[in-house]
Each structure stands twice: as C-alpha cells, then as structure tokens.
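Q: Can I see a sequence and its folded structure?
A: Here is a first one.
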Amino acid sequence: MDDEDVLNFVAITSCDPQKAAQYLGLTDNNLEQAIQLYFDSPNLEFGVTSAAPQASTHTSSTAHNPIEIDSDEDMSDAGIDTQGNTPPTHHGTVEDDAAMARRLQEEMYGGGPETDVRAPMQRTTETLVGPGANWGPQDSEADIDALVQEQMARRRLPGRPGIFNQRTTQTSVWDSAGADSSARRRELATATGGASESSNKSNMLAELYRPPFELMFQQSWDKARDEGKEQEKWIIVNIQDPAIFDCQILNRDIWKNNDIKLTVRENFIFMQYAKDDPRGQQYINYYFHARDSQDAYPHIAIVDPRTGEQVKVWSGPPVPNPVEFHAQLHEFLDRYSLKANAKNPVATRKPERKKVDVDRMTEEEMLEMALQNSLDNNKGPKDDDPDALTKVTSAGGKGKAKAEEETVEATESATNGSVDSPFAQISTSNPHTEPAPGDAKVVARIQFRGPSGRPIVRRFNLADPVRRLYEWIKAENPWEGKQGEDFDLVCMGKNLLESLDSTIGEARLGGASVMVEFI
C-alpha cells in the first residue's frame, strides 16, 4: 500500500492512519473511492484487526496467558493447510474480501433492524426534447420549441458576454423602473457574464448600454409573424454588431427613449439580434444582404407580418437622433397600415444606372468619376430602403416633393390654357448665330457630344441663357436621323433643363463638354 495515499487520506479526512489503511484496502488503493466510502460510512466495523494491536495485546498478557501454538492438524481445521495457504472458500473466523463486501453492502443498503437504511430512490421518467418539439398542453403559454431553441442558442453564442455584448435575460425584471434593484442587478450580472459586478462604474455602463430587454419578443420568427398578424402590428428588427459603437448608441439613446418605447410597444413587435446570433440567422439570410459590410450596421428594418415583405430599412451610419427617428416611425405609420381595406404605397422598380460611355467623356469628367469611385470604394455596401422607392414617381424618377411641385405647376399651366412641359415650351424656330471669337470672359466654346461620337464645338456668349443651347439643337439638329426627337443636355451629371433661365456663365459651361442624350 502506498504511504502517500494514506497520508493524503488522513490529510483530507482527519482520521487515524490505521483506519485510512483499512478504507484504502477495501477500495483496492483507490484514493477517491476510499474517501467517498469514508464520508458515506465513517463508522464501519472492520472484521480484520491489524497485526500490531494483536501483538501488543499478546505481549502484555504473556505473563498470565502464555501463547499456545496449534498443531498442524488444528491449523488445517482452522482453515489453513500445512503449506500455509488459505483455501478458496473457508468458514474460519478470519473474514475474506467477498464476505466483507457482502456485509458492507447489507449494512449500507439492506441491513437489519438496527441499521439506518436509506429509503430507495423514487423512480422517475424523463423525456429528451430536441428542436421541433411540438408536444405539451395546447393552452400552455410556454413554447417548448422556442425554449429549446433559446437554450441551444445560448450554448452556441460566440464570444464571452460583457458590458457591450450582453445576453438576453428575463424581461419581467426590466418592465418597471420601480422593480427590485437587487433583482435588476443580478439579471444585469447574468447578462454581462459578471462584468457589471467588477465596479460601480462597470455596473453604470452596463445599465447605460443595456439592450432593450423589456421590448424584445423572445420567441421565434414564425411566432413573431403570427403575433403580428393577430394583433395587427408590424415587425421591427434590429441587427447589431457589438464591435461597432453606433450599435451601442442605439441601445443608449434610441431604444431607451420613452416616446420611442411607447410607439414601439403600441405598433410593433420588436426583435434584436447580434449578427452572429443563431436565432437571427433566418432573418439575416433572407433580408440582410449586406451583413458582411461594417458600413451596413446598425441595421433596422420593418417587415410586413402578413406577406413577409421588407417595407422600410435604416442601414448604416449616421444613427438618427431620437426625435428624428421617432418622427420617421410616425411618418411610416401614417403612410402604411395593416388594416385589411388599407392600400399601402407600392415601391416602383429601382431605376437602372445609366451606362457611362467613357469614350465620350472629357478628361475632367473622367477625373471626377475616378474620384467618386475612389470615395465609394472606401465604403462598404448598404441595404437599400424599399420605402424610398415608394416616394419616387414613375415619370422621370423625381422625388415626391419634386413631383408635387410639378403637379402644381401643371395645374397652373392648365388654368392658363397650356399644359406643355418646360422642354416643350422651348422654341424650335430660333436658330443660333455664333459670335465672333473674342475674349474668353465674354465668349465661351462648348463641346457637344451626341450619338455619333464626333464632338461638335459651338461658340456662345456667356451672357446667353442656357435655353439657347436647347433652341440651337431644336432648330438646327446636326445629328442625322435625330431631328424632332426629345433630348436631354447633361454636364457633369447635371441635367441642364433645371437651369434654363441661368446664363451660360452662371452654369459654368465655358469650355465644358455637354452630353446630348436623345430620349
């Protein structure tokens, strides 16, 4: 027997070495099992006494009780043969290992009336529950599948929880500002993985940047859609990257604003996920196409629970201030409705980007385009706002405000007996006479690039209105086969139709290149 095991046993149990050796002997020198056996049954009666006490006893009594050595036959009868070997089975006074084990088992589990027998453990039946479980009482408020998914998601969440990466906790604690402060502190510690308990400042920061647990809908995406259809509420989703501070600003300023919280509670079902949260992957895969771009965070979107259509998006910085965001929410609610008889705005087709003909661009235009592309390349993609397309009219791709202005102008023109557009009002019988070459401060040379690709240069006075460019092309169209067709004049990406009454000098067209695009 290893003396080190005996010493360790004594150090842990504080029993005497002799008893430690006996327990180790019962467990075949397994220290852990011996210690466990000792704590379960510290008062075991051992049938085998040690040799040392026997020797001392006999020594002390030799004066009155001399030792008698039995004959070989007596030793054989006692269970030991003449060669000193113990037979496999014997019934002597010395207790073998098997007998001791049976006795100990009887004492621990099935002893007589004098032993303290522990009652048998009650039989139980348990059921393993996995994803997709749909059993349980139909009227129960608990969603078994949602609870399972939440437990699995908690185990798969990447990264350690902290002040800026808090985990979802019970909503009941956060519903009321007058809730038990100790309970709120405990839940905050759970959400931050204990980080909020390191100091009072950490606790204050954790509370300041705490996600809006009291607003969050904690069940699955399908449950959220069902809830939205039943209560006629929109679904508003916030996807965050904890490493981007703009997302933390949302938790600090937007979702804690009382007016915004009241609006969200009354009209929306709110869901918030980190970008790596498995519970939000269904939404991210279907709707959040720019999820790999840091410039697309924070991401907020409104989804129609009936059709699953994404109808409004806020993507990327800058984060709107609370007053502005609250106004945008109410503007959305004024324009959209979940009532069965309501007619919501319909998004028009996203305007296609015009193909740029590099061969027809001037050096200045190419330089400007290269500079713009360089600026755009430093920014990642963002998700487009579908609601912005509902404000674009199909005619000309002008904004809603611009379309309303033109509607008013058209109404006024109709009152005066004319409904012609600004382009139609330009004269077609006013040919242009070029001024003599002169001072560049008075005369400007303008290069026109049409469909043929060959540039045409004409001189104009800087004091002439931009309208003269249109009048010249309408009266003397130099491009064969294009006579009588409508056209646009574009310079540096700007449609000159918006500057008809400005002078050529004011429009900075001196020495410029103007694109003639026939419609």
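Q: Show me another, different protein.
A: A second, unrelated one:
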Amino acid sequence: MKVLYNLLAIFLILTGSNAQDKKAQNPVIFADVPDLSIIRIGSNYYMSSTTMHMNPGVPIMKSKDLINWKIINYAYDTLGSSDELNLDNGKNTYGRGSWASNIRFHNNMFYVTTFSQTTGKTYVYTTKDIEKGPWKEISFSPAYHDHSILFDDNDRVYMVYGNGKLFIKELQSDLSGIKENGLDQVLIENASSPAGNNIMLGAEGSQLYKINGKYYLFNIVWPKDGMRTVLIHRADKIAGPWEGKIGLQDLGVAQGGLIDTPDGKWFSYFFRDYGGVGRIPYFVPVNWVDGWPVLGENNKVPQYLDLPESKGLIPGIVNSDDFSRKKGEKDLSLVWQWNHNPDNSLWSVQERKGYLRLKTASITNTLTQAKNTLTQRTFGPECSGTTLLEVSQMKDGDFAGLTLFQKDFGLVGVKAENGSKRIVMIETVNGISKEIQSVPFSGNKIYFKASCNFKDKTDLGHFYYSLNGKEWISIGNEIKLPYTLPHFMGYRFGLFNYAEKSLGGYVDFDYFHLENKN
C-alpha cells in the first residue's frame, strides 16, 4: 500500500507540473514593453507601449489570449522634425521622444494618445482600422504628463494627468484640445498619500476606468526605502471625492491597469524593472471584493496565470530577417525601429534584393549621433543576434557592424582606415569609448554575433566574429549591460554604418538571425 501511495504522489506531482507548464508564466513578455495600455474589442486585445526616441513610434500589438502578442502597427512614423529628433548638429532626444501612451476605443474609432517632452506637445492618433490605418494626428500644447483619457456618458471626454498632484481636464469631443469652460480642476491633491509621506516618486502613470458605474484610477508610486507600488483610487463621480489604497506591493511590479476576458476573468497588467533587458510586463489575477479590485494571489504576483502558455516572442515581438521582400510587403518588418528619425534616402532593401543597404548618413565619431541605426529589442533570459556584412564599398573612415545599444554600449564592426580594414570591438562606459581589441581584416564578407545574458539580472554581453559563419571567435571583453535612465529603455540589437571622414560609402547586411537561448 505504501508503494501505491508513493506512486500516486509521484503521478500527481508529474501531472501537476505538466499542467502548470501549459499555463502562462510571469513575466508575460521577457522584453522591453513598458508603460503598457490594453483594451479588449470582442475577442481581440490591443496594446500600446512606449519606445521613446525610436521610430516608428508607439507600437500597437494584438493578441487573442493576452499572452501571445504580435506587433501590428505604429501610431506614427515620426513625431516631427528637429535637430534633436534628426540627430543633427550634435543634438539628440535619448530618453524622451514620446512617453506613456493610452489606448481607447469609442464609437468605432481607436484612439492612441501620448505626449512628448521633446516637442512639448500632447498627441492624439485616431483610426478606424487599427491594423492598417491610416492614422490621423492631432496635437496641442502642453505635454500632459502620463495622462489617461476616459469617454464618459453624454459624449464627455476627460483626461487625468500629473505627478503626485493629479489634475483632470475635459477635452473637446473630438480630442482636438481642451474644452472651453469644461471640467478643469485638481482631481487628487496628494495621490501618493496611501503609500505614506516618505515618497521618492509621486503618483503617476495614470490609467482611468469606469466600471459598473464607478470610476477607478490606477497609479504607480515609489516610497523611499521601498519598492514601486500600485495605487488604486475609487470614486462615485468623476470629480470626486476619491478614496485610495495600496493595490499591490510585490517585486516592484507596477504601472498599469485593468483588463477583462470574454469569459469574465479580470487581470491587471504592469511592468517590472529588470535591469538591462528593460521594463518587462507582468500580469496578476484580479478579484472584485466590495467594489474594489483585489490584485494578485494573497497580495503576491504569481508565477503562473490561468491563461494559455506563451509560444515565445519570435516572431511577434522580435524576429529574424533575411531582408527579402515579396511584392506588397513593407520594406521593413514591424519588429524594426530606427534610432531617432531615419534618413529614408540613405537605406534600402530594394537596391540589392535580399540585402539591407545602409549608406553612411552621418559624419561622427560616436554611434549615439549616427543616423540610420536599425534596431530591435533584445530579450530574456538569454539571446543572440547574428549578421553577415559585405563591406567592399566602404570608404576611408567608415565604420559598420553590430551593436548592443544603450547609453553604455558595446559594438563589433569593420573600420576602414588608411587603405585597409580592421575588425574592432569597442566598449563605451559613461560616454567614454575604448577600443578593446582590433584584428586586421582583408576580406569583403564578415559575420558578427552579439549575445546577451539577462537571466537573474546577470546583464552581460559578448561579441564574436567569424570568417566563415561556422567557427566563432570571441573579440574584446565581456561587457556589462546596465539599464540607465538617460536612454530609458532596454538594450537593443543595432545594425549601424557611419562615416568619420566623408559620406558616400555603403555596406550590405545579408541577414539578421535571432536565437533564443532559453
């Protein structure tokens, strides 16, 4: 009998484990998808996020199950044109661009709003077809920080925004600006107060909802000597009075809101700062008690969720690319974003079929001021990216290759100088670049690889080169991949080509291949 019980116990452990393996796990997306905002239309979920100085901007993602997401569009190609946005005259807009977006659906129209410290404006993007567009842009000043909009009864539209002290303004029905003589007041004098008086980051990241006749407002706050915390306020009327409490305080998971499923489940979506990979989404289950959303399991973020398991981030969020385009396909797949505004006259996937051609677009001596660096997210726990580069048309002073890009970045590339070429690995820390290793090179084709380890916040990167695509040679040193606020995003793979002397040269990237090392 004892043997039978032991066998039964083993069976239950094994079957229980298998059942758990088929469930979704946190983090839901192990990549940089911060400031998420989600809506559900029927059985489809749509999410917007922040990518700041990258373009196109404000990615729109779609899911059928809340777990497996695919980038389907962007709200804009560029925010505008200025030295900061164009990387001209030594200026840039790292860590700014557009911040926390808000996505809503009303009267068969999709609305995506955001704001920019770079331009000082608030932006409203609208479309009836969120997957194909076109998008209409409305903008007005000033830039309303971390705002959220709500379509209420009688076609009234409200915007809540601010930090610590939260404000509300009524918008015109078409969201083209502030409504004259509309509601305009302080909404909550000290929205941080449920978390105490010793506050490092005041309540911000507003997301506003109306559910069953009551108004709910989600915010993030950061107490000193504590962790990022979810705050929830509730009111019977939009103007208040509002009562608030701590919604969740675990793992630093915060800033987000509420979403329901077609079968009546509720979840909250947030992100967690996770070092060099960026700010990664976590979901928690929600139960309603006495009109309040109660977050998590025993006030904790669970590892497993009662949602379908993830099929991985490839190809929905990140993806390999051979740069071959069929008729009717876009020149670049949606996983790619340019660092700042691109110069579209100086890159092509059409001039040489099956290759990404990057012509030098900047004369500079640093990657951070180089135009037309093409990027996509790194991802965890471990990943690598590989590319094959043809360099026969480089001019003297040109530098092209593969980078792991943030404020502190590393790269491996080919540098043409004094009639010859070198394979070079460079590490940049605190704005100071140092050539770590150099290898003479006489060929026209070179393979590069960059690998990342984000497991348990290890945050380390390595670079390699190969002459045949089979034997890989480590170059330079292991680099640290710290998350820094000046760039305010997770590390990116980047393909680059810039000139230190004169324009006119170009290189061809044959492919970019991603590998998930889970």
